[in-house]
Design a protein that fits this description.
Elements: H1 4-7, E1 10-12, H2 16-30, E2 39-45, H3 46-50, H4 57-65, E3 70-75, E4 86-92, E5 98-108, E6 111-114, E7 117-118, H5 132-142, H6 149-153, H7 157-178, H8 194-203, H9 208-224, E8 228-230, H10 240-251, H11 256-276, H12 281-284, H13 290-304, H14 309-321, H15 339-358, H16 368-381, H17 393-406, H18 409-416
């Protein structure tokens, strides 16, 4: 499975699948040429095309290919074979003749794959584990804690990376809480709530649940504004783990060292989910984003509360289990509704899962790996309109209402069909 460094990417929001992935694909494609091509044509398919404008995919592509003239074609009507987030990159010479073409897929969390398999663009080592049970077995056999798996299978740079990850997460929380921006960018004009939520939490004797939700909201609102965040494991779910960790550091006196170790455990779980299933909302719905993030945050919180390995796994299992079947239906294709509130609620649920788990002996019927496999099956069984296409669910209802407000005859016409 992937290194935790591949799970935690530092970058700009609002979407790892729709901005980080396509931008990286463009940069890697251009590295193939000794001399820059005269022009580029980028064709976006399926989910990338359906929600790309709301997710700022075109902006990310143009920024990564500047100053090369780049044409973007939108093909929401065409589905490719390997993943809903497919794209074709074509390089052309000054006469318009094709130089090279690359079909690549943005598979979640900024990860890429093409027809040959995963696109490896770093020298990060791969871990031998293919399941969380493998990590648990390693811990039992060596007598070492779960976080020490990084010492055995990664380089010391992994801990340096996790320090940068935590610093970026902390800064995102604090920027979001302090922001005086009234509304988020985009047609919804959604009101930012983190600052007021945090203020109300402090007025109520530092209410833990309101504090956690305000921290998660802060990062999610920063992400929606195109701010600097960490994929954990995606941009759309980037507020959940930081919200929980910031609470432990700020209000429960968790040490920097323990925060780093919690990040390591959560990152390994994210890597297992990515390996066995998917962290792409376009492939398995929001259960692969918010569900995966809650799973990771539940394990981190349990560790910080002093849980043993069985309790950590139990917390993580519950964190994902209770999000099974969650659809991805972003209104207007923006990473705002219902995404931002889901981050706040999932952060609170992660704390609930952790406190529940440590009140037990850690024994549980369903294993984390089994829930991950069920999540994968469930996601592929979801209709496409519920997988980040903005064609169903909340997205379709709000779109109809907005259309009706602009044209009152629309609703009557729709009702008569």
């Amino acid at each position: 499975m992937l290194s935790v460094r591949s799970i935690y990417k530092i970058g700009l929001g609002p979407s790892s699948s729709h901005t980080m992935g396509p931008a990286l694909a463009c940069r890697l494609f251009l590295q193939r040429f000794n001399q820059p091509p005269a022009s580029l044509v980028v064709t976006l398919y399926d989910s990338l095309a359906l929600t790309g404008r709301g997710h700022l995919t075109d902006k990310a592509i143009l920024q990564s290919t500047h100053p090369i003239p780049t044409q973007i074609l939108w093909r929401p009507d065409k589905q490719l074979s390997l993943h809903p987030n497919g794209m074709d990159l074509e390089a052309r010479d000054s006469q318009g003749e094709l130089l090279s073409r690359w079909r690549v897929y943005s598979i979640g969390g900024g990860q890429l794959r093409d027809e040959s398999g995963p696109v490896q663009h770093t020298d990060y080592p791969l871990y031998p584990a293919t399941s969380f049970q493998d990590v648990l077995d390693w811990s039992a056999q060596t007598g070492k804690p779960l976080w020490a798996y990084l010492d055995a299978h990664d380089s010391p740079d992994a801990w340096t990376h996790l320090k940068k990850v935590w610093q970026t997460m902390r800064q995102a929380v604090e920027r979001g809480i302090a922001s005086d921006q009234q509304t988020l960018p985009g047609e919804l004009k959604l009101k930012r709530r983190a600052r007021s939520m945090h203020s109300k939490a402090l007025d109520r004797d530092e209410d833990d649940r309101k504090l956690i939700s305000s921290y998660a909201l802060a990062v999610s609102e920063e992400n929606a504004s195109g701010g600097r965040i960490v994929t954990a494991p995606t941009c759309g779910s980037s507020g959940i783990l930081p919200g929980v960790l910031y609470h432990f550091r700020k209000n429960r006196n968790a040490s920097q060292e323990s925060i780093g170790r919690a990040l390591a455990i959560a990152g390994m779980i994210g890597a297992v989910i990515e390996h066995r299933a998917s962290i792409s909302g376009a492939e398995v719905g929001c259960q692969g984003e918010v569900g995966a993030a809650c799973c990771m945050a539940s394990a981190a919180a349990a560790f910080l509360l002093g849980a043993d390995n069985g309790q950590i796994e139990y917390a993580a299992e519950m964190g994902l289990e209770h999000f099974l079947g969650l659809t991805c239906d972003p209104v207007l294709g923006l990473v705002q509704v219902p995404c931002i509130e889901r981050n706040a609620f999932a952060a609170m649920r992660a704390m609930d899962c952790a406190t529940y788990a440590i009140a037990t002996d850690g024994q549980h019927l369903v294993k984390l790996d089994e829930v991950i496999d069920v999540m994968n099956d469930t996601g592929h069984d979801l209709q496409a309109k519920y997988r980040e296409t903005a064609a169903g669910g909340l997205a379709s209802i709000v779109r109809l209402r907005l259309t009706t407000q602009a044209n009152p005859t629309t609703l009557n016409n729709a009702a008569s069909q």
